[in-house]
Write a structure and sequence with these properties.
The structure holds 2 protein chains of 2 kinds. By secondary structure, chain A is α+β, with helices and mostly antiparallel strands. In chain A, about 65% of the residues lie in helices and about 10% in strands. Chain A is built from 25 helices and 10 strands. In chain A, the strands form 3 sheets. A 4-stranded antiparallel sheet of chain A has the order 2-5-1-6, sandwiched between helices. Chain A has a 4-stranded antiparallel sheet with strand order 8-9-7-10, with helices on both faces. A two-stranded antiparallel sheet of chain A has the order 3-4. In chain A, a hairpin with a 4-residue loop joins β3 and β4. The relative contact order of chain A is 0.12. Chain B is mainly beta. Chain B has 2 domains: about 1-40 and about 135-225, Clam (outer membrane lipoprotein receptor (LolB), chain A), CATH 2.50.20.10; about 65-130 and about 240-255. Chain B contains 3 helices and 13 strands; from the N terminus they run ααββββββαβββββββ. Chain B has helices at about 1-20, 30-40, 135, and strands at about 45-55, 60-70, 75-85, 90-95, 105, 115, 145-155, 155-165, 175-180, 185-195, 200-210, 215-225, 230-240. A 13-stranded antiparallel sheet of chain B has the order 6-5-4-3-2-1-13-12-11-10-9-8-7, covered by helices on one side. The relative contact order of chain B is 0.18. The chains are: A alpha+beta, B mainly beta. The interface between A and B is large, with 39 and 40 residues.
Chain lengths: ~750, ~260
Amino acid sequence: MQNKLAKFILRYPKSVILVSFFLTLILASGARKLRIDDNLKDMLPPDMPVRKALNKIEDIFGGSDVILLAIGNEQDTIFNQGTLEKIKQLNDSLEAMPGIRDVTSLVTLKHIAGEESGLEVTPFMEEVPQTQEEINTLKRIFFEDDTYVGQIVSEDSKYTAVIGLVDKDADEFRLYDEVKALAAKFRGPEEIHLAGFPVLRAAISQHIKLDLRRLIPFVILVIMIILYLSFRTFPGVFLPLLTVLMATVSTVGLMGHLKKPFMLINNTLPVMLMAIGTAYGIHLIARYYEAITEGHPKKEALEETAREVAIPVIIAGLTTMAGFMSLLITPLPKLAEFGLFAAFGVFMALLFSLTMIPALLILLPAPKRKAPTDRETNDHPDKGIFSRVLFGLSAQVVRLRVLIIISGALLALAFSLGIPRVKPEMNPITFFKKKSEIRKSDAIVNRYLGGSVNMNLLLAEDIENPDVLKKMEKTQEFLEQMPEISSTISMATIIKKINKALHADDLKFEIIPETKEAVSQAILLYSMSGSPQDFERLVDSNYKHGQVIARMKSVSTTKISQISREAERYCASLPEGKNAIQITGFSVLMKDLAYLVTRGQATSFLAAIIVIFLVASATYRSLKIGLLAIIPLAITIIMTFGLMGYAGIAFSIPTAIIANIIIGCGDDYSLHFISRYRLELKKAEPTLAVARTIQRVGRPILYNAISMSLGFLVLLFSGFMPLQFVGFLIALAMLTCGFGSLTVLAAAISLTKKRKEVLR
Amino acid sequence: MKKIIILFLIISGILLALGTNRGTAQEKLTADQIMHRVDSRPIPKDLTAEMAMNLIDRKGQVRQRTVKTLRMGDDKQIMWFLLPADVKGSSFLRISYEDREDDMWLYLPAFGKVRRIASHTKKGNFMGTDFTFEDLGDRKLGDYAYRLVKEEKVGEKSCWVVESTPNKGVSTDYSRIVSWIWKDEYIPLREEFYDGSAALRKVMTMELTQLKKYWVPKRVLMEDLKAAHKTAMIFDKIDVDTGLSEKIFDTSSLTRIY
């Protein structure tokens, strides 16, 4: 089969090249339609209860996330005319901005005051005070009112917040750009910090582009260096590079055609495809050069190459694809999508390597000078430190095999203890480096203004009913005990304030009135001077749905899980009313996402390893060999995740693909080793066969592991922490896996007593 | 002497304006003359009605309140809440003065006392509607500069379109107001309110009904474009000039529905 194909390619090389370019062009044309958008909200399957509750909240109240602008600095008070003027202008500009539902700030928030006979509702700062006396009055009223201290103005008056509720349908990217421009316009001497999930989401999407611009040139450079060191010829460098570039643009183009957004996790694609795909080209060209050196003419050399390496390369490609496709069984549609695109990319790299490279090689003149090849150097084991190490290894593995296996097992055991320490982390703030602007802003907002994260508790009941209000009140009291929650607000808060004001600001009356009439009339009284939009974010216009908004600092996903679990338990324990309080918000969404990613990881990892086990078992018709093949993979996976636990590397969506990459790529080493061992076993007894196999395949395996690692290490230049972790961990895993095949696998395989079991 | 001349000019101006009232559509009037006639058109001495205040949010959900209202001229108004049941019996009294802030009182049966409400916030919304107190109160003729923009029909009715721009120092929410004034009766049928940033903020439309010799509002709709919120005031059981006693407009009337 492969012979016929090879003959066809070699007969019509120009057509093959033309068709390949044409195919690439068609696919790549989709890149123009590509939308870069890391919408974490869409990650979660739409039928999750938390997602449904969030949709309901956004439907009723128009939105749930906020953009927070923190204005001020460490040195000054915000209570000076210049800063107050800026607050007013920022407030007004934000109010006029499309995509902002409403604005909460010193300008819009209202002070509810009681008088001897009535009630007065006035914005804290409708107009900017003009004299020091007016400024002092504003400050005094704000702090006496006490409702918003530590939220809108920090306790020490150094920072103030202008908060925009983001419309659920807002174009967050455009909004982010506009808010950024607004902040830049008013910055100085006051700092202006931006925070909130919409900011994070938009910033991530913007950084994706910047990140790609940095990563792609780097990975091309690294690949070129690897290829140059391998072949030192022009075709040796440019043919594999050309095929992986074509595969990458085809894949990205396909995303555009299918209108799939380019997400953060996709930033690993170019690096991954190039690192993985280059290996196919290297195999082909190395064997071709070898055949030329052996004295074959060009065409014969290529036919020989096709005969010998096409099948191993195809198997390597297919198992890598299988590794990615096992992401299909995660419960997260977007992660499954990524798996499909990655598999498609690998397929294209495989296709172009097997067609374009031979077609181009037959058109190019044969290399004149001898290229260094594996076989040549391996015949002289004394050459180079690399070969000496391999030679030493081959001599010792069988003698020390029990020790090697025990150490491998102990190592796996030691690292496995770290696995339970791996914590999922979905809070997008952790994607940014500690010293980044966005992290600094987040820290300031957490420290001075109570954070920018909302947790929403939805009640679908008669909000004017005092029992419902009391339920809200109790829930709020419970939530406010938690140190991470800085404040809560609901209609209960407002009704209590009105009631207090109705009784001449007597604190005894800061309670929910006893009758529904009293509640309704309190609202009527407020409406005499408030505006109809004042409660829009707390209650719907028919008072049939209400929400408690808990503002909190940005905390880890683990903490969020704990908080929402406790809140859920508390709400369920409340005796009043039959209706459940639904707890949601983007942060809670992330908690569920973490759960799903973790669960998905376990299943997709198992699926991947079973696929490799089956492939190996089927290829060699032996379950034992299938088991042997997955030994280095299992050890590597355990060590990688154990390392994550010990090093405190969080488990996130990008790191969720690590296991699949390791299995899909690392299996090549075991399979390569086993197939060579079977050849050697025909000629020699097991001990010698193991030694010879190590000498033969050691170099290509370690070369491949090193070049793969170097490729993935490019991700260290990413601006996103999780991507850096992915790069680092996979680089390490590839080396572990390669080395593991030459030691633990070699030791284990030599223990197989019966030759026929291996040779069957 | 100067004062006398000015007074004379004003009086003759008024007489002239009154004399040409009920003029035909063909006659050429300046914007100032039109607005003057709007300001001085005859209004009922008193008015009785049931008024539904429908608050309509951006999703079209309606929250309704119904009041019985009595008015005397432009400056005295009392209303009792009929619906919803939870606020029934609540009541509101407002008395306006030429030279000082309005007096307003509210009575809430659940809390028992008649309460005075601060009125200095002109920008506040009335009863949680989209009407601010400014929208409901009369605009003082001299506070604005007027410009006749064009003539246009609203439905079947021919109108002058007049733009009002507040004079310096006048406290208002709006940077300008454009009014469609029905030529036959000098009543605005539509008004557009522009906010500080010159954006169209609110639109008011009015449907009228004829009662005795007056044209009175039957349905007034105020739409806040920014908040995507609407208020419809719908009048029912209207009667005018029934000879209401001035005594009704007193805090003592608040506790019982008249």
